Fold this sequence. Notes:
Layout: E1 6-10, E2 13-17, E3 34-41, E4 44-51, H1 55-73, H2 81-88, E5 90-92, H3 95-110, H4 120-125, H5 138-147, E6 153-155, E7 161-164, H6 177-191, E8 196-201, E9 204-208, E10 217-223, E11 226-236, E12 240-245, E13 250-253, E14 256-259, E15 274-281, H7 284-297, H8 299-308, E16 314-319, E17 324-327, E18 334-335, E19 340-343
Parallel strand pairs: 1-10, 17-19
Antiparallel strand pairs: 1-2, 3-4, 4-8, 5-7, 6-7, 8-9, 9-12, 10-11, 11-18, 12-15, 13-14, 15-16, 16-17
Amino acid sequence: MNRLITVIIIAGITFCCGCRENPKSKDTDVELKSSTKEIFAMDTYMTVTAYGENADKAAEQAENRIHELDAELSTGIEDSLIAVLNKKGSAELTKDAAYLMKCSLELWKKTDGAFNPAIYPVMEEWGFTTKEYKIPDNDILRQKVQLSDASKIKFDENSGRTEFEIDGMKVDFGGIAKGYTSSEIMHIFEENGITSGIVSLGGNVQVLGSKTDGSPWRVAIQNPNDDDSYIGILEIKDKAVITSGSYERYFIEDGKTYHHIINPDTGYPAESGLKSVTIVSDDGTLADGLSTSLFVMGFDKAKLFWSDNSDKFDAILLTDEEKLYVTEGITDSFDSDMDMTIIEKED
Ligand code: ADP
Ligand code: MG
């Protein structure tokens, strides 16, 4: 049986289509157990699928871990650790939150501030945190941008102790937490002896191994202009594929669209000329952080950033003019009907 599991990334909702029934291991022709969980957490729909003897246990542990991370990290959950940190201005971070703080601050430095974990006051001002959207007053927005100064986060990596040096600062791991979650699920799969598995967290996909017949997983990258089509299909093993796009969360006022990925320099939705950025990497946390970062950077900076870090990730970039660019590391595994330009490493 030719099994195809295609994950289509659609406006925060992920459709996993394909047949999963009676999967067989190629070598033994023995039926492999599979287990799938559909979960709503982190404000998004998620699907977790594991194949193997311990599939049920692995999927259940994955579900528990998702809820655990949600309860710890979500700014929207009133008594979450991050909500408490934002309210009090200080907290002892758990291992998970400390890891995300460390990665976020590293990314903030590496991306020249394009990734900014202290952006939350700006997100609030636009109403993205409550879904009561509004265009902020210019002066207030400027104050919020000043408040979003990640250099004023005092963070001790060893103890997890975190303190904001300015009153009113708030952090948000919305740009990175789902990638961390999918990475954590890969570890859970491995601990349970799973060799084939896939998770999709609101369009963020990460896979373990290959499909049970040994062929690569096929992940469809959504067309930002059309919920029902895709710009291409990527074949992967052991990778995270994470997309950030202006089409994922937005509101329209007076005919203008305002989306949820913010340029930290201006406090306005990033208008960098990119419509979507997909990152392909072994590391889900990095992929998620970078999808947001490269979207903010725009094409030229994104290209340079990839060139300097091509050992860590590959990228698919779609511009506002519908030009498709793919970095050279994935040209053989990405198939598209669109014209695509290959980005090669500069010497
Ligand atoms: P999604 O969460 O929709 O998959 P992203 O990974 O790009 O998309 O994350 C967007 C989220 O990241 C926003 O909802 C907000 O919480 C946060 N965010 C917005 N702008 C930035 C930024 N410049 N740096 C870091 N986080 C950001
Ligand atoms: Mg991201």
